[in-house]
Design goal:
Low-confidence stretches: 1-6, 186-211
Order of helices and strands: HHHHHHHHHHHHHHH
Distance between the termini: 80 Å
Number of helices: 15
Radius of gyration: 21 Å
Oligomer: single chain
Mean pLDDT: 83
Number of domains: 1
Structural class: mainly alpha
């Protein structure tokens, strides 16, 4: 008598591992990818190593949170659009809930000396984490001198006040033109691109001169960020600083750094910073609206990657565009580190914390989460002894 073989619903297989990743994936995008590779390539063997690299390479071409999109694309390859949705929600939700809890504590108790002491020690570590990201990504982005030169030019442009999205697209476009096959009318492509770039530079952040943080403006601000932020979660700092601090004046630079710190010390995507800021602007409703807005584009983009990853990754022109974008992204991150550093490194203690953590991160590759917790404890101790 033949034995009955029960088929396992692949959608049910997705919930457990991605929810576990969402609860335990500390350490930023690079750590997320390492955990996913071990779980889904080595242990579960859902896809091959080559297919996983295809997904990672394709997601690097997209705006938004790269490691989150890789998680969604993995869900898509396993169980189609429903698998993508389940993987995305399971990976994002724990980080957003944890960040929301921190935002509630921050709003209700942030003025207490103890909480201020925690932030006093944690913020310099966050600066060190950004510096480490600039160092690591810069070694790849500036591997050839033309890209290093592009990075310097982009750094000068952002200091001069050029919009981040224009800097990224111009850098990527120039790199793409340099890789364009000989004999093609390069100048036509460049002329066609400039009107779009010029209009992007003139579009006010979040739909014009918004004076109050209503739910709809909050949604569209973060929806725009989900569409235009290339690079990594740390590049998000540039846009948040430009839109919410400089243009709309919804939050201050210290509040921005507090939000990014909260996004860093929780598991999952750094883009959960949006949940924290949304809560500051409009309570729990703002947290929900901001979270949905910033992650919504990724659900559609990751689905396209799941279906077309192989073709996208093999395109030399797409790879050239990404090289230019990456060079600009690292320059933008460096500029943000300087801006936030001026607001954070205010005395010898904060400078010492930042420099020690930079050395530990770059030389010894200590997990950034432990350093942030260590910095928070050091802040408490310093304030108690002061």
């Amino acid at each position: 008598m033949a034995q009955r073989v029960e088929k396992t619903d692949p959608r049910g297989e997705i919930v457990g591992p991605f929810l576990r990743l969402g609860l335990t994936a500390f350490g930023g995008p690079a750590a997320h990818l390492v955990l996913m590779q071990g779980e889904f390539v080595e242990r579960r063997k859902w896809i091959t190593r080559e297919q996983f690299l295809d997904l990672v390479g394709a997601c690097n071409l997209l705006p938004g949170p790269g490691s989150t999109q890789v998680a969604m694309a993995l869900g898509y390859t396993r169980a189609g659009w429903m698998g993508l949705f389940i993987a995305g929600v399971c990976f994002i939700l724990p980080a957003s809930l944890a960040t929301l809890a921190l935002a509630w504590v921050y709003v209700h108790f942030g003025s207490l000396p103890q909480v201020q002491s925690v932030l006093y020690g944690a913020k310099p570590v966050m600066i060190a984490v950004v510096v480490q990201a600039v160092w690591n990504l810069g070694r790849t982005a500036f591997r050839r001198w033309p890209f290093a030169l592009a990075g310097v030019a982009c750094f000068a442009a952002v200091l001069a006040g050029a919009p981040p999205i224009v800097i990224l697209l111009v850098s990527g476009g120039i790199s793409l033109l340099a890789a364009w096959p000989r004999g093609r009318p390069k100048h036509l492509l460049g002329l066609a691109a400039w009107p779009g770039l010029s209009s992007l530079g003139n579009v006010p952040a979040a739909g014009g001169a918004v004076l109050t943080a209503g739910l709809l403006p909050v949604f569209f601000v973060f929806l725009k960020l989900g569409v235009v932020v290339f690079g990594s979660g740390y590049v998000l700092l540039t846009y948040l600083n430009a839109d919410l601090v400089d243009h709309l004046h919804w939050i201050t630079e210290p509040q921005l750094l507090d939000a990014v710190t909260a996004g860093q010390i929780t598991p999952g995507p750094v883009f959960a910073t949006a949940t924290f800021i949304g809560y500051l602007l409009h309570g729990w409703q703002g947290a929900v609206v901001a979270t949905v807005g910033i992650f919504l584009p990724s659900f559609f983009l990751a689905g396209a990657v799941g279906a077309l990853a192989g073709r996208i990754r093999k395109s030399p022109l797409a790879a050239a565009f990404l090289d230019g974008v990456n060079a600009a992204a690292v320059a933008l991150m460096a500029s943000v580190a300087i801006v936030l550093g001026r607001a954070t490194l205010v005395d010898s203690w904060t400078w010492s914390l930042a420099l020690v953590c930079i050395a530990l991160l770059i030389r010894f590759r200590v997990n950034s989460t432990w350093l942030i917790f260590g910095g928070a404890c050091a802040g408490l101790l310093i304030r108690l002894l002061a």
